[in-house]
Structure formats: structure tokens, C-alpha cells
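Translate sequence into C-alpha cells.
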Amino acid sequence: MKNNEVENIGQINKLPIIAVLITGAFLAILNQTLLATAIPHIMADLNLSENTAQWLTTIFMLVNGIMIPITAFLIETFTTRRLFLTAMSTFAFGTLICAIAPGFAILMVGRIIQAAGAGIMMPLMMTIFLLIFPIEKRGSAMGTVGLVIGFAPALGPVISGWLVEQYPWRSLFYIVLPLAVINVIIAYFVMKNITKRTFPKVDVLSIIFSTLGFGGLLYGFSSAGNYGWSSVLVITSLIVGTLTLTTFILRQFKLAQPILEFRIFKNKIYTVTTIIGMIAFIGLIAAETILPIYMQNMAGYSALESGMMILPGALIMGFMSPINGRIFDRFGAKYLVIIGMTLLTVTSLLYTNLTPETSLPYITTVFAVRMFGISMIMMPATTAGLNQLPNRLIPHGSAMTNTMRQVAASIGTGLLITIMTATALNTGENATPSEMIHGVNIAFYVATGLSLAGLISAFYIKGTTPAEDRAGMESE
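Result follows.
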């Protein structure tokens, strides 16, 4: 069989493909948060200011977010095997540059190359999983994806926190590099061509508008927490992002072969589940961002304690995602999502009464219950939405889902950190912990309101099982 032909899915050995996809996506997502606790060490070693060093995490998220909307086009243009090998090789090459970077400029180049490869991984994995599994088994398959999404970002700060205390910060990249290279070598032998190529026309203007639109919004919202909403840089980024993104969306409706198909939002179930997924992701990222700031800067906990606080919840989410996938296959998403959103709302409310004396077991237990709830929302909601789309639109659906999550995380984090600082009773040098924690509690009140809106939306999910969805699609 030629390398560019689509394989017969029924005859494919799925296990090796699943293994290389999960490993690749895990490494890609891990790198979003891997530098979180290593930043102070990099600042000291390369003589950087905090604002400059923060770009190492910001640029990864930015380039990652810019690449995701283009993946639907890439999936329809290149073979599965070639696209995966290129994305993973690009990621590995970026990792090598980061490991040997003599200074900040080269380190930034490495992070950009890493992110360019990583941005392709998640939508590609979701698309392949949805195509190689029948609709009634997709929940179990996507539950494994949920394990990666929940576990990798939470594990990043814990791994880096331990490593940089024992070894130089470059060790982070030297550990990831051989794993990425091994993944590329194994993928060369086991990866098959799953996706069908339609060779859409390259619309350069759409790619430019998409890059400026999503890039501008992601940068504007993620920078608002650092520079404030009145910053000229933030305002300019948001205006440019909004205008170019609007132009990009309008252009897609006029193209016969759009880069990203926005017509999928005409499907009500897909739209509702995407919104719920965005709210759940804000809940996940907001807690992982705000709680370490509260713990280290206001309640006197160490960086390692704040990292370890996240770990039990991450383990629970990783353990529960495949189980929730099986439950989804049998009963559908509706009741899973309702229970999950209820837990997310309750735990957000429990974080509105934090004080300088709040105990570590309390913070850890509430966070663990929160992650248990999020595991019931993320992949079941995503899979229920994507199940509504025909196979030809799945690359667009998975790219859109991942793009919306990235935008939600950026907007949610920027907004909640701004609320946290703006509503603190005092933020000056003489501010007491209680005065600063007031802002944290208000931010979680806002998070509670968002979760409640998600809970109400969950009742609009169609209460069918995947098998019934399939029967419905076949009868149409």
C-alpha cells in the first residue's frame, strides 16, 4: 500500500497508534506548564526580569493557540502519518534548541518551534480517535484523551519543581527530548493514514487573519493580568484581535473550502457542549493559576506544597477520565455533565471563604473533588458534541473545540486575575494577607457564577446514548 493512501480502519492495529498519539500529546501539553516553577531559576541564570522570563510560557501558549485553528486545513492537506511525524519532529527539534540555548533569544526560538509542533498534536489526536473508533466506543477512547488533558498540565509544575531543586533548569528539556525522539521513531513504523485528504485550497489571507485574530486575543487577555486592562499594549492587541478575527470568520462563510468551518455552530448540541467545555476549562485553569498565587504569596505555603496540592486532583482526574468514558458510552453525556457541573459550582463556592489560616488538607480536598467533577465534564461534553458531526467535519470540530478552550483559558485567567487584584482591599507594600485574599474570594464568586451558567446549560444536552446517536445519523 502506498504511504499516502488511507488504510482500512477495520484492519488497523489500534493499540500502537493510540500509544504514540497519547505519548506525543502528553509531552506537548506537559510543556505548557513545565516551566512554571522553573522561571525563577531561568531568571537568575540568564539575568532576566520577571516580565521578560514570563514570555517563555506566554509565547508557547500563543503559538500553540495560533496553530490549532489551522490544523483542520493541515489534516485535510497532508497524510496522517506525515503530519504526525512532522509535528512531533518539530516539537523534538524545538526541545533540543531549548536544551542547548546559550541565551534568552535562542531559548525563545526553541519555545516557538516546540509550540508549533505541539499545537497540531491535540486536534490531530482527537480527530484520529474519533475516526478509528465507532460512535458507541468513542467515550472510552476520548476518556483516555481526558487523562492526558487533565494530568499533563497539573504534572508539569510538580515535575519542574522537583527537578530544578536537584538539577539545572536545562534538565527539563533533556528529559523530554529523548522521549520525543523515541516517540518519532516508533511512530515512523506504526502510524497509519487515517484521515481523508480533500486538498482544500490554501487561502493565505485566512491564515494571516486567523493568526492575527487568535494571536491578538490570546496575547491581549493573557497580558491583562500582568499589565492591566488600561495598558496600550493590551487594548491594541484586543482591538486588532477582534477586528481580524471577525474578518476571518466572515471570510470563512464565503469560501467553498474554509480553513475552519464555523457552520458547525448551527448544530445546537455541538454549540452547547463547546460552551460547557470552555466554562469547565476556565474552572480548571483558573484554580490552577489562582490557588498557587494565594498559597505562596498570601498564606505562606512553599512552591512545592502548592504543586503537591494539585497532584491528588490530577491523579483523580487521570484515573476517572477512562471510567467516565465508559459511563458515557452506556448512558450518554447529559447526567455526567450535570453532576460534574454541580461539583464544579459547589467547589468554586467553597473557595470563596479562604483565609490566611485555611488548612492545606481543606484546599487539597476541595481541589480533588473539583477535578473529579471536571473529569465528568470535559471529554463527555466534547465527545457528545463531536458525535453530532459527520466524519468529514470532525477535523474542523476538534480544531474548533481545542481553539475555543485555548481562548477560554486565556480570557478566563486574564479576567479572574484582574478581578482578584482589582477587588483586593489593599495591594500595596503594607497590605495584609487578609486584605489580598479578599480579591481571591471575589474571583471565586465570579467562577461560581460561571459554573452555575454551565450547569443550567447542561440541561440542554440531548439525553441520548452514542448508540442512539449513530442510529439517528444512519436514518438521516
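Note: DSSP finds 19 helices and no strands in the chain.
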